[in-house]
Here is the input.
Amino acid sequence: MLKSWKHLFVKTDEPKAGKDEAAEAYSFPASEPIVPAVAANSLASTPTPLPVGDPVVNEVIEVYESGLESINMPGYDFYEFYKAISSTGLSCEHTYQLAYQMARSMDKTITVQKLISDAEFYISKINEVHGQYVSQGQAKLRSLEEKKKAEHGQLQGEIDQGATRIAQLRAELQQLESGVNQKRALLSKIDEGFLPQEKAIREKLAANDTAKTVSIQKLQSIRESIARFIKQ
Here is the structure.
């Protein structure tokens, strides 16, 4: 039986059991400060992946690596082979031959086909978690967009009512104009208020894309090198 994914993107002190609960998506913070935001139409844009080495990318890569370790299958399989190759920092036939000989010395049932098959399993889990991470992030962005529209609509409605009343009741002109100006000032700051939240989410989504690409490239490189360098 496989080990659980250990809530790859959910930080909790009480992990759930069972391999079917693997690859749970990242849970974005429930409460965040209201600070400046970008224009509404920017929410639908696709985040640009951050460069490898970015702190946010490194954080997500570490989460992926921890997730891979948490679902490491019993005994010697591709994950142990992957760790052995990765620890050398080398990618050549001699390195793969030595690693394969060591693997065979530990488990006679190890074959090239088994290693490649196991690699596909781990790659599929990376893709699974990445997809759930994207879904969670997009849902959070949609939620922020709805909040912005609600506040925008509310304040705009109040502005319109105030302007109408100014026209109807000239005697209240000065008081109503003051209220309208205050609400317009609030309206102009709505986009600013969401900027840090949107920026943080976009960074996490971009980091998630980069981390997935880096992780899969590493796994695929070793998978391909197994097929290329190891002959049975």
Notes: The longest helix spans residues 112-168. Confidence is low (pLDDT under 50) at residues 1-44. The helical segments are 55-70, 78-88, 93-106, 112-168, 173-188, 190-229. The radius of gyration is 26 Å.
